[in-house]
Amino acid sequence: MDFSSKLLEQAVDEMSQLPGIGKRTALRLVLHLLKQPASQTQDLSNALLDLRNNIKLCRNCFNISDTEICEICANPSRNAEIVCVVEDIRDVMAIENTGQYRGHYHVLGGKISPMDGVGPSQLTIKPLIEKVQAGKVEEIIFALSSTLEGDTTNFYIFKQLENTPVKTSTIARGISVGDELEYADEVTLGRSITNRVPFENSMKDQ
Ligand SMILES: [Zn+2]
């Protein structure tokens, strides 16, 4: 792409670093911003910088949060003894949208994926195990997407918890293999949490 302006080229280059944004889309977005009042670009930049500089991970569940302890963990009406294990905040949002779940979460920050160089130590598995070993958890619900990586991660955690009295279950698979949680509709997802099955049973199915 040949630019007549270095400033334009620089903005397009930065924008096209984002996933799913090619150079053409980046150019369209940048030109759109140029047509809008300067305050819009300023507000966008401020929001992104503010997010980047001030966002925290909840010390308890590792969900993205504005505060040291997120709103879900800080809510006394939620049951801290049930912990739903998810990949990231999008899964938390999807499950919260169902209105069917009143427990806590544990956000892993990804899934075990040797192909992508992601091992257990890069995820928040250790704090989860420690939470269970401290006797604070009665039930763990695995709610990772049913991909190879999701299953590998579930099984790894399950093995780590084998010598603890914690109950392990997995969300019922109304969700077909490979579906990501965030795309599951609320009714199906809500039902799959309510109708969760013991984790051992889910392994026998495979
Ligand atoms: Zn939290």
From TrEMBL:
Keywords assigned: DNA damage, DNA recombination, DNA repair, Metal-binding, Zinc, Zinc-finger
Gene Ontology terms: biological process: DNA recombination; DNA repair
UniProt keyword annotation of DNA damage present: yes
SUPFAM superfamilies cross-referenced by the UniProt entry: Recombination protein RecR
Annotated CDD domains: TOPRIM_recR
Pfam families the UniProt entry points to: RecR_C, RecR_HhH, RecR_ZnF, Toprim_4
Zinc finger boundaries on the chain: C4-type: 58-73
Molecular function as annotated in GO: DNA binding; zinc ion binding
Keyword presence, DNA repair: yes
SMART domains listed in its UniProt record: TOPRIM
The organism's place on the tree of life at top rank: Bacteria
PANTHER family cross-referenced by the UniProt entry: RECOMBINATION PROTEIN RECR (PTHR30446:SF0)
UniProt xrefs under HAMAP family: RecR
Protein's UniProt name: Recombination protein RecR
Name of the coding gene: recR
